């Protein structure tokens, strides 16, 4: 089987626009959560979100192109362009038929859906935009990426709620590993920080009602009371080792395993035993050809909901034992929860952490819940230059569990 390496990454989140800024701020523990200003959220009962304030679609996407894309697709194009540029991929060194795209979104064009339904209600159905459908459907980020970069291999979109991007990267990894493509652009994006997005999750009582951005997203904390909705996304360029070496590419990391399971338990709640997530981690570890004691770090799903954090902690202890030494953190205390884009920004943070020998700290845990018996990354222990293997967990509504295993690059 082919070894699969990472040669490019792009990211945008509330705490950083662009790979360099996102990684620097994430490893420094910078919280990007802030008061919602995109719309009047007062009637929703929710005050803060992982809102992005510094995105200009004209800079990378282009003004004309952006008018025909929902915001989630605009984020997808920007991060993919950054990843492709970093990788140095072009039609001179890569056959378009050997490059594909697997890129997902949990919800798709929610901003467009909200705007166009309001327009239809107020002005009638004949005023609905002719671009409504291609802007709203959740596969169009993948389609737009494919068109932008002339990627003619498999072009697909994954929709598995909050596990979306991790499944997309995992499926793309398999596409390269099994010899069906040389290069894949993979990841996920989301743009649900709007009135219907906030109102919908608030109606589920899933969101934190805390008004303080520094104390709203509290992964593994005893006082956690819900997640903070975030937006943005990330893309990774996955490439066969042989193809990357042939063109002299700089290698940033390696994907070595992937696991995906279903809880078959509940539409929104994870199985409290954690056994489904545990099996996904075990699958990723097995495919990597390592043992659990070789895993140095887990980027946890860590949503800061009671059910997720306690269940995920149990799943980690199922795999690694009650008295394990694996370090764990959730980056959602800084970015909020990007839903379908979460696994992508978290994959970037994980790979960058291994690359730099510095793991992201678990920002937002002020007093750890005794139900969450995991070894959290803090500022005191985040420097880990010898860390070699890491997992990134994503767990979605519907019982979707997806886990990626990464290895710090070395020949």
From TrEMBL:
<feature type="domain" description="Ketosynthase family 3 (KS3)">
    <location>
        <begin position="1"/>
        <end position="408"/>
    </location>
</feature>
<feature type="active site" description="For beta-ketoacyl synthase activity">
    <location>
        <position position="162"/>
    </location>
</feature>
<keyword id="KW-0444">Lipid biosynthesis</keyword>
<keyword id="KW-0276">Fatty acid metabolism</keyword>
<dbReference type="InterPro" id="IPR016039">
    <property type="entry name" value="Thiolase-like"/>
</dbReference>
<keyword id="KW-0275">Fatty acid biosynthesis</keyword>
<keyword id="KW-0443">Lipid metabolism</keyword>
<dbReference type="InterPro" id="IPR017568">
    <property type="entry name" value="3-oxoacyl-ACP_synth-2"/>
</dbReference>
<protein>
    <recommendedName>
        <fullName>3-oxoacyl-[acyl-carrier-protein] synthase 2</fullName>
        <ecNumber>2.3.1.179</ecNumber>
    </recommendedName>
</protein>
<keyword id="KW-0808">Transferase</keyword>
<comment type="function">
    <text>Involved in the type II fatty acid elongation cycle. Catalyzes the elongation of a wide range of acyl-ACP by the addition of two carbons from malonyl-ACP to an acyl acceptor. Can efficiently catalyze the conversion of palmitoleoyl-ACP (cis-hexadec-9-enoyl-ACP) to cis-vaccenoyl-ACP (cis-octadec-11-enoyl-ACP), an essential step in the thermal regulation of fatty acid composition.</text>
</comment>
<dbReference type="InterPro" id="IPR000794">
    <property type="entry name" value="Beta-ketoacyl_synthase"/>
</dbReference>
<dbReference type="InterPro" id="IPR020841">
    <property type="entry name" value="PKS_Beta-ketoAc_synthase_dom"/>
</dbReference>
<keyword id="KW-0012">Acyltransferase</keyword>
<dbReference type="GO" id="GO:0006633">
    <property type="term" value="P:fatty acid biosynthetic process"/>
</dbReference>
<dbReference type="GO" id="GO:0004315">
    <property type="term" value="F:3-oxoacyl-[acyl-carrier-protein] synthase activity"/>
</dbReference>
<comment type="pathway">
    <text>Lipid metabolism; fatty acid biosynthesis.</text>
</comment>
<dbReference type="Pfam" id="PF00109">
    <property type="entry name" value="ketoacyl-synt"/>
</dbReference>
<dbReference type="GO" id="GO:0005829">
    <property type="term" value="C:cytosol"/>
</dbReference>
<dbReference type="Pfam" id="PF02801">
    <property type="entry name" value="Ketoacyl-synt_C"/>
</dbReference>
<dbReference type="InterPro" id="IPR014030">
    <property type="entry name" value="Ketoacyl_synth_N"/>
</dbReference>
<dbReference type="InterPro" id="IPR014031">
    <property type="entry name" value="Ketoacyl_synth_C"/>
</dbReference>
<comment type="similarity">
    <text>Belongs to the thiolase-like superfamily. Beta-ketoacyl-ACP synthases family.</text>
</comment>
